[in-house]
Amino acid sequence: MEIDQIETFLAVVTYGGFHRAAEALHVSQPAVSGRIRALESSLGVALFTRGRATPSLSPAGKTFRPHAEELLRVVARARQAVHEIQPLTGGALRIAAALSVCTYLMPDVMKEYQAAYPKVMVHLRSGNSMQVLKMVLEGEADIGVARSLHHPEVETMTLRDDPLILVGHPAHPMASRQQVHLEEVESWPLIFYDRGSSDWTLSQGLFRRAGLLPNAVLEVETIEAAKRMVERKLGFGFLPQIALTQELRQGKLVAIQIVDAEPLSRNLDVIHPRHRPLAPEAKSLLRLLRTAADTALPVRKRAKRRNDPVK
User: Fold this and answer.
1) pLDDT of the residue at 295
2) Percent of the chain at pLDDT above 90?
3) Whole-number Å distance between alpha carbons of 45 and 214
4) CA pair distance 58, 36, nearest whole angstrom
5) Same domain? 22 vs 63
6) Mean per-residue pLDDT over the chain, rounded
7) Residue scoring higher pLDDT (211 or 309)
8) Of 21, 24, 195, 277, which alpha carbon lies 20 to 30 A from 130's?
């Protein structure tokens, strides 16, 4: 049993087929098939049920899957442990991050990081989640920070939840309600951003699943532009929590709970290649990212105080 065989097994499971797994792993389909056959031979069982367009896990495959995942986690921890004994040497640290992360999380993190490690040159690039994943997979970035990033070739660690929150200006007449129904929100003036993005799809899908058509009065390109429009009482917006910390704490915006709709949940994740352990420079940055994520304002706690007078 070899590590690349286990990785290939999990890739087939993740992507639902040998061909897609081969594309994700950047190898040929015969190579994928060969690794799976070798793994099955070493175990003495069939891991997949053949004869279908999409291979499915056999009972043995279902039993083996959690152990395969744990094996890769152990291997990653072993690589990391060996790597961590190396001292910080300066050099460069390459980071790929979502634009919202670059805008709202990284400035404070980088201020602390550069004060602690002035000899490390940091290169920070932004992109959407798939672009961040691509940069990490292709070796253009040492770590990536974005939302809901999963791939068999990367280690994924969730920093925190980063849900989309319906917010408005506290002086807007409709913002006085602590709890509302989605059907009411349908007619409110709504501001959306970045058409086609995962955020846009999530917020639009909330209405579409209920058979409703949101009253979109503005569409802008960025989260920051949408937030500024909401601050000027032009409408309401579904914005990521990471972008709202200061405004909610200072009472410049208020969060409004939709009682009959599921939360628009997302995770803020950090990824790095499974085969390339984090350097000490990257490990140090990760600790600061965790601290910054932990100190973000809990929206649910803020919501309990929404009946406080607006100052």
Assistant:
1) 65
2) 40
3) 53
4) 13
5) yes
6) 85
7) 211
8) 277
Distance from C-alpha of 221 to C-alpha of 3, rounded to nearest angstrom: 43
Residue 66 shares a structural domain with residue 210: no
**pLDDT of 80:** 60
- Alpha carbons 185 and 168: distance in angstroms, whole number: 12
Query: Does the pLDDT at position 199 exceed 70?
Result: yes
Q: Is residue 210 in some structural domain?
A: yes
As beta bridge partners, residue 264 has: 164
Look up the domain containing 121 and give its range: 91-161+267-294
pLDDT score at 81: 64
Q: Could you give the C-alpha distances from 261 to 126, 148, 237, 286, in angstroms and in order?
A: 32, 21, 16, 34
What's the rounded Cα separation, in Å, for the pair 214 and 212?
6
**How many domains, the chain?**
3
Q: How many H helices and E strands in the chain?
A: 13, 14
Kindly give, in sequence order, each residue whose CB lies less than 8 Å from that of residue 160, ignoring residues fewer than 6 positions away: 267, 268, 293, 294, 296
